[in-house]
Amino acid sequence: MQESGIGRRAAMAALGTFGVTALAMAGVEDWQPERAPGRRGQPEGQGAPRPDPMTAAQLGWDPAGNQYVLPQLPYAYDALEPHIDEQTMRLHHEKHHQAYVGNLNRALRALWEIRETKGDPALTQHWLRQVSFNGSGHFNHALFWQIMAPPDDGGGQPPEGELSRAIARDFGGFDPFSEQFQQAARGVEGGGWAWLALDTVSSRLMIVQMESQQHSSLNGMVPLMGVDVWEHAYYLKYQNRRAEYVEAFMNVINWGRVADLFGTAVQRLHWRGSDEAEPER
Ligand code: MN3
Q1: Which of 143, 140, 145, 147 lies closest to 254, judged by CA?
Q2: Phi and psi angles of residue 209, each rounded to the nearest 5 degrees, phi first
Q3: Interior CA angle at 224 toward 264 and 135, to 5°?
Q4: CA–CA distances in Å: residue 132 to residues 101, 121, 215
Q5: CA triplet 202, 207, 211: central angle to 5 degrees?
Q6: Measured in angstroms, how far is the CA atom of residue 92 from the centroid of ligand 1?
Q7: How far, in Å, from the CA of 228 to the mean position of ligand 1?
Q8: Residues 6+ positions from 177 with CB-CB distance below 8 Å
Q9: What is the DSSP string of 152-171?
Q10: How far is the CA of 48 from the centre of ligand 1 (A)?
Q11: Which residues fall inside 5 Å of ion ligand 1, going by CB?
Q12: How far, in Å, from the CA of 1 to the mean position of ligand 1?
């Protein structure tokens, strides 16, 4: 469809302005996952290109409205209890994430108006900052919801397959990884995130801290799994006990979904390293 093609190009163009965080999200397209959240296992080896595990709807892109919208959670607000409580999930999704979406759309519209010579060009830098912060915030949260699952639907089940082997190779095993990841999350200064990311330069997994919603050190990184350690993510239930929240978060990680993201990212590295062009998407 021509219309959705335009919408997709517009989405991709906007993604480009977000920088780093958008790297893993660059393959926005209409693809429906065959498997429910929380299911694990991914066919290994070469063969047909992997479909992107994140859909446009999950990334909050509405091609008909030509705007970003708040993506639905793949589970109920109380589904991550007792680790993450219902009230926190509801406020975090309906208020905090919604604010990033609204501010992102507002900034994109303002920049469009400036380009159409209907807006104030003196405010260009202001709106660019707004796009960067709120766009990154929007995509960080869209990914965050997807890489969690209820404990009775696969949440917290350790990774298997090629992701498990990569974690063993790069961190010495799941337990050392888990400890270092939690340490990174505990140590973020102020609001921010800890991420497990694929470094596309070294083809290795890395644990990185992100201040606020964006961080230049993520250049070349494909984020695979992360934890929001802004206080709004945990203060109602855990107050100042961030370590307790981070430990509880480990019980709701959807490693099946993380493995899908990892598989897609690795396959793209293989394309980059071969003479074969990436298949038309
Ligand atoms: Mn948040």
Answers
A1: 147
A2: -95, 145
A3: 105
A4: 12, 17, 11
A5: 115
A6: 6
A7: 6
A8: 167, 170, 171, 196, 207
A9: GGTTTPPP-HHHHHHHHHHH
A10: 36
A11: 228, 230
A12: 35
Ligand 1 midpoint to CA 249 (Å) = 14
Q: How many CB atoms lie within 10 A of CB 171?
A: 20
Cβ(232)–Cβ(91) under 8 Å?
A: yes
- Residue-averaged pLDDT of the chain: 84
Dist. CA 233 → ligand 1 center (Å): 6
Whole-prediction pTM value?
0.81
* pLDDT greater at residue 274 or residue 82: 82
Enumerate the H helices of the chain as residue ranges. Answer: 2-18, 86-91, 98-115, 124-146, 161-171, 174-187, 235-238, 242-249, 255-273
- Give residue for tokens 């070469």: 46
User: Distance, CA 22 to ligand 1 centroid (Å)?
Assistant: 17
Per residue in 85-126, pLDDT tens? 999 999 999 999 999 999 999 999 999 999 999 999 999 999
